Amino acid sequence: MNKIIAWVDQRFPLTFFIKHELTDYPTPRNLSYWWGFGFLAGFVLVIQIVTGIFLAMHYKPDSNLAFDSVQHIMREVNYGWLIRYLHSTGASAFFAVIYTHMARTLYYGSYRRPRELLWWTGQGLLLLMMATAFMGYLLPWGQMSYWGATVITNLFKATPVYGDQIVTWLRGGFAVDDPTLTRFFSLHYLFPFLIFAAVAIHLVALHTVRSSNPSGINLADKDNIPFHPYFTIKDLFGLGIFMIVYLLIVFFKPDLFIDAANNIPANPMQTPADIVPEWYFLPFYAILRSVPDLAGGVVAMAISVLIFAAMPYLDRSRVTGGARYRPIYRAMFYIFVIDIFVLGYVGAHPPSLQIRTIGEVSTTIYFLTFLLLPFVSRWEEKFVLARGLPPAVEAMARKEIAEAEGNV
Amino acid sequence: MSEENTIKDGADLSRREFLGTVTAGVAAAGVAAACVPFVSSMNPSSDVLAKATTEIDLSVIAPGEEKTFPWQGKPVFVVHRTPEEIAAMAASKGGKDPEPDAKRVQKPEWLVVIGICTHLGCVPNKTESGWLCPCHGSVYDNSGRIISGPAPRNLDLPPYHFVAENKILIGKA
Question: Which of A77, A81, A87, A247 to mutate to probe the B interface, most B CBs <10 Å?
Answer without folding.
Answer: A77
